[in-house]
Write a structure and sequence with these properties.
Order of helices and strands: EHHEHEHEHEHEHEEHEEHEHEH
Distance between the termini: 22 Å
Strand order of the largest sheet: 2-8-7-6-5-3-4
Number of strands: 12
Mean pLDDT: 94
CATH architecture of the largest domain: 3-Layer(aba) Sandwich
Shape: globular
Length: 354
């Protein structure tokens, strides 16, 4: 059976070039960078080189790049930092932001856009972190981060201190949106290897100089770090062309879906969105059964974020007023073709017409 993978928002396949980098630093240059012999020194230099390469992509400084085990750890290093007093997030953040902390959650509109007026009113002299993800992982809405950054900067100026700082979980964004720290106006950025065709179990946190003092202990994951650096550089190189290609695929797919049933609703912002995520509500279906029907025909997609527990409904869809019981998330990637999407449309048509 032909497999059609449409769940790139959950996990991207590892690029072949990334695999070669990981193999090199797993079997040839595998020393612990904390030791003092020659090969260990070389491993440490490789890590420093990876920091510089990633910093060049982000328009940052190498010493502002901290490697972690993934996006969740990066988020936790920010939000569970001992300096925190009052944290503000949007109501539709990733579960690694929503679940571990007590915070003020700012509502969003029906498109998933954060309420900027409410955000501004919610910042107090005790606020240390404002955390708003750049691209929502379930509906693909791009949040107005530059406007949020101005609100945070103005609050910092008004209160005459170091805080609040602005953090963004950009794990879902980097494949299709340039992550340039000055342009975004952020102080902290979380990224994850497995969202950018890189290794699993590796991520990074950008920490602007002079903000938080974050240190990590333990043996560095050199193969993962080198794979992540390669993946981020490759993404930067091909992003513009690949984003345009996927945007065309998404437009085709949406038009074909609505042609099947005009009652199909697009969940999320129709203008400010990342092209690789499409969340739709399909009338008169049970989404879990629908996904199983698609899977039986070789098509793989999801009903919600993979990070939610099986019994949990999507709080993101609930927040924007969508029906999480009949919603499906399709997400596209580097291996997605128009031919695949044509086949998916045929199968969906067959299922809905039964």
């Amino acid at each position: 059976m032909r497999r059609i993978y449409l769940d790139y928002a959950s996990l991207t396949p590892i690029d072949n070039g990334v695999m070669k980098q990981m193999k090199k630093y797993s079997t040839q240059e595998y020393s612990n960078p904390m030791s003092y012999y020659a090969s260990a020194v070389n491993a440490k230099k490789a890590i420093e080189g990876a920091q510089e390469r990633i910093a060049n992509v982000l328009h940052a400084h190498p010493d502002e790049i901290i490697f972690t085990s993934g996006g969740t750890e990066s988020n936790n290093l920010v939000l569970q930092n001992k300096i925190n007093k009052h944290i503000i997030t949007s109501a539709i953040e990733h579960s690694s932001i929503i679940n571990p902390i007590q915070a003020t959650h700012i509502s969003v509109d029906a498109n998933g856009m954060i309420n900027l007026d409410l955000l501004k009113k919610s910042i107090t002299s005790e606020t240390t972190i404002v955390s708003v993800m750049l691209v929502n992982n379930e509906i693909g809405t791009i949040e107005p981060l530059s406007e949020i950054a101005k609100i945070v900067r103005d609050a910092r100026k008004n209160y005459g201190g170091q805080f609040p700082l602005l953090h963004t979980d950009a794990c879902q964004a980097i494949a299709h949106i340039p992550i340039y720290v000055e342009k975004l106006g952020v102080d902290l950025i979380s990224l994850d290897g497995h969202k950018v065709y890189g290794p699993r179990g590796i991520g990074m946190l950008y920490v602007r100089r002079g903000t938080l003092n974050i240190e990590r202990a333990g043996t560095a994951n050199v193969p993962g770090i080198m794979g992540l650096a390669y993946a981020i550089e490759l993404t930067e190189k091909i992003r513009e062309k690949e984003t345009a290609r996927i945007a065309d695929l998404k437009e085709y797919f949406v038009n074909e879906l609505i042609g099947i049933d005009s009652g199909i609703r697009i969940n999320g912002d129709l203008y400010n969105f990342s092209p690789h995520i499409l969340n739709v509500s399909i009338p008169n279906i049970d989404n879990e059964f629908f996904v199983l029907q698609l899977d039986a025909r070789g098509i793989e997609c999801s009903t919600k974020s993979a990070c939610l527990k099986d019994e949990e409904e999507s709080y993101v869809l609930k927040e924007i007023g969508a029906n999480s019981k009949n919603s499906i998330r399709f997400s596209f990637g580097r291996n997605t073709t128009k031919g695949e999407l044509k086949d998916v449309i045929k199968v969906i048509t067959q299922i809905l017409q039964k």
